[in-house]
Amino acid sequence: MNIAVIGTGYVGLVTGTCLAEVGNNVICVDIDEAKVAQMKNGKVPIFEPNLEELFLKNIKANRLHFTTHLKTALDKSQIIFLALPTPQDEDGSADLKYVESVAHELGDLITDYKIIINKSTVPVGTSEIVKNIIKRKTSVAFDVISNPEFLREGFAVQDFMTPERIIIGTKSKKAIDILNKLYSPFITLKRPVIVMDEKSAELTKYAANTFLATKITFMNEVANLCEIIGANVDDVRKGIGSDSRIGNKFLFPGIGFGGSCFPKDVNALVHSSDTAGYNFQILKSVLNVNQSQKKSLIPKFKKYFNNHISSKKVGIWGLAFKPNTDDIREAPAIDVINELLLEGIEITAYDPEAMPNMKRIYGDKITFCNNAYDVLKDVDCLLINTEWREFYSPDFDKMKKLMKQPVIFDGRNIFDMEVMKINGFHYESVGRKIVTK
Ligand SMILES: NC(=O)C1=CN([C@@H]2O[C@H](COP(=O)(O)OP(=O)(O)OC[C@H]3O[C@@H](n4cnc5c(N)ncnc54)[C@H](O)[C@@H]3O)[C@@H](O)[C@H]2O)C=CC1
Ligand SMILES: O=C(O)[C@H]1O[C@H](OP(=O)(O)OP(=O)(O)OC[C@H]2O[C@@H](n3ccc(=O)[nH]c3=O)[C@H](O)[C@@H]2O)[C@H](O)[C@@H](O)[C@@H]1O
Predict the structure, then answer these.
(1) Which of 17, 184, 277, 329 has the smallest count of CB within 10 Å of its CB?
(2) Which ligand is nearest to the Cα of residue 325, counting in written order?
(3) Is 259 in the pocket of ligand 2 (CB under 6 A)?
(4) Where in this chain does the record put each UDP-glucose/GDP-mannose dehydrogenase C-terminal domain (predicted)?
(5) If you classify domain 295-428 with CATH, what class do you get?
(6) Domain extents for the chain?
(7) Quick check: CB of 216 below 6 Å from ligand 2?
(8) By alpha-carbon position, which residue is closest to atom 26 of ligand 1?
(9) Measured from the CB, is residue 322 less than 6 Å from ligand 2?
(10) E strands of 101-176, at which residues?
(11) Is any ligand 2 atom within 6 A of the Cβ of residue 280?
(12) 206-293: CATH homologous superfamily?
């Protein structure tokens, strides 16, 4: 099939590449000229495991192309994916300006039947808005379908290739038939296509993300309680996760959820519920709890040093909002660093992938190091924000030699408490007892 994908971010580029991988001809469109030039030169503009190999393979096979010229892409394609940003607006709602602006262009440019498939996360009613914008501009037949995307950054290729389900929101029989064919390489009995109306599909995406954000937040509150009463959240997590009604995924406590989606999607659903006259109380609590959870290492750090912190030097491991990505949008590390800088604290930091993005925010306000050990030279303590695999088994003796004091505040529970005790660290984590020297 001939497909155009508009927007080549995490969702668009992965969608385009994976659809090319199963034999389709795909042309990816972006307004960012530098990005398109980079992709034409065979460079993947984001860090996403396993993407580069498929990207290069499909360019070579002449199935994956890039352009800044929307009309060229539309003329070659019947299926048009929208993978455009829907960032949070000042009032918390999802900003639809990118989607609406492309809808206007589509209305001006399409000359024959198109299926316009929206993969962006958009509030209920957006399919209708897009439909109306296009309808006002053309008499050409078209369908607008809601087809939300559930991939995770860091596992984007794997999630796209083996989705747990594909949601198609439309009443158009013609569109359903074409989409069933398009997605047939990805569907199995256990990985079904679920067809519903547009509004239900749009809400399914928000309900999924906000449910997961709520699950994490619930565990963070359980962890906070564990710290007060002296229970161990790891045991509680295993205890409840073995109940298949609860499930053992997304129960890991930490320093709050970040990323380009959970925070904005919880805000957007709160906003659209308010607008619809429904007070979505649980999600308002999720936002409040998450805001304080993101800074929850700071009081621990202050208490340990009896509030004498301004002369301290702090090392940081992990800047990305989670491992396996260079994405720092809404990363808890940003909240932590901002709090420390407010106190005039000197910071050294390391992240395997996210340092270029963090440098754009902080410049020389913090010292970026070449590896995890360089961070530790003469620091009074280490703060861990992201559970990158390479942090799990460090040389503890080397760490102690480098650090002024063997003190660690771990926001992701990456170390075994017994191991920290044996190695002589003061170690504070989330929802577990404090390990003292
Ligand atoms: N990042 C993720 O893991 C997931 C994101 N989503 C949703 O998918 C949507 C896209 O997200 P990302 O891919 O992360 O965004 P992104 O910000 O990484 O990429 C969006 C791309 O669209 C381009 N763009 C903007 N205006 C354009 C226009 N008029 N014409 C062509 N290109 C244009 C931008 O230059 C950028 O390259 C959002 O609604 C997001 O909520 C859904 C599931 C997963
Ligand atoms: O709409 C989206 O953009 C995507 O949002 C999330 O994917 P992503 O943001 O890439 O990352 P997750 O792995 O879900 O993690 C989100 C945040 O929750 C945190 N988290 C996750 C799991 C957990 O048990 N505990 C926890 O604190 C992570 O550290 C991270 O900050 C969803 O998992 C995807 O299904 C969805 O498509």
Answers:
(1) 277
(2) 2
(3) yes
(4) 315-417
(5) alpha beta
(6) 2-196, 206-293, 295-428
(7) yes
(8) 98
(9) yes
(10) 114-118, 142-146, 166-169
(11) no
(12) N-(1-d-carboxylethyl)-l-norvaline Dehydrogenase; domain 2 (1.10.1040.10)
Q: Which pLDDT tens digit goes with each residue over 66-101?
A: 999 999 999 999 999 999 999 999 999 999 999 999
We find that the CATH architecture of domain 2-196 is: 3-Layer(aba) Sandwich (3.40)
Q: pTM (2 decimals)?
A: 0.95
Please tell me if the CB atom of residue 153 comes closer than 6 angstroms to any atom of ligand 2: yes
Q: Report residues whose beta carbon is within 6 angstroms of any ligand 1 atom.
A: 6-12, 29-32, 35, 83-86, 98, 101-102, 119-121, 149, 151, 153, 260-261
- Residue 19 to residues 12, 25, 58, 425, Cα–Cα distance (Å): 11, 8, 10, 50
Catalytic residue at 381? Answer: no
Say what the pLDDT of residue 63 is: 98
Contacts 24+ apart (CB under 8 A), 179-185: 179/115, 179/117, 179/145, 179/147, 181/1, 182/1, 182/3, 182/19, 182/24, 182/79, 185/22, 185/23
Q: How far is the CA of 322 from the centre of ligand 2 (A)?
A: 8
pLDDT in tens, 352-387: 999 999 999 999 999 999 999 999 999 999 999 999
- Indicate which residue's Cα is closest to atom 1 of ligand 1: 10
Model ipTM over 0.90 = yes
Summarize pLDDT for 220-274 with one digit per residue, the tens. 999 999 999 999 999 999 999 999 999 999 999 999 999 999 999 999 999 999 9
The yes-or-no answer to whether 2-196 and 206-293 have a common fold is no
